[in-house]
Amino acid sequence: MNFYKILDIEAGEYVYLNPERIDFYMRTADGVFVGTSSVRILTLEADFENMMFLEGAKEW
């Protein structure tokens, strides 16, 4: 179980996110909206892609 420190650009705070717990994500003009059972954040697209790359995801 890996946690990644991701910037929530709406709140201006960092949150720790486990990619295995992501329920959905949606690309927007401002970044990537990520939802889990306990948190909804808007993060930078580069941060999201780096996290998924480090997890070994083939596509996202």
Can you describe what's shown?
Helix content is 17%, strand content 37%. It has one domain. It is an alpha+beta fold. A hairpin with a 4-residue loop joins strand 4 (32-35) and strand 5 (40-43). The protein contains 1 helix and 5 strands, in the order E-E-E-E-E-H. The chain has one helix at 45-54; strands at 4-8, 13-17, 24-27, 32-35, 40-43. It has a 3-stranded antiparallel sheet. The protein has a two-stranded antiparallel sheet with strand order 1-2.
**SSE string, helix = H, strand = E?**
EEEEEH
Helix percent reads: 10-25%
Number of domains: 1
Sheet with most strands = 3 strands, antiparallel
Enumerate the spans where pLDDT stays under 50 for 5 or more consecutive residues. Answer: none
Number of helices: 1
Mean pLDDT metric = 92
- Side by side, the strands of the main sheet go 3-4-5
* Shape designation: globular
Strand content: 35-45%
- Give the tally of β-strands: 5
Radius of gyration over C-alpha positions, nearest whole angstrom: 10 Å
* Category by helix and strand content: alpha+beta
SSE topology:
Layout: E1 4-8, E2 13-17, E3 24-27, E4 32-35, E5 40-43, H1 45-54
Antiparallel strand pairs: 1-2, 3-4, 4-5
What's a quick, concise take on this entry?
The chain is of the alpha+beta class.
Which descriptors apply to this entry?
37% strand; single chain; two-stranded antiparallel ribbon; 60 residues; alpha+beta; 3-stranded antiparallel β-sheet; 1 helix; 17% helix
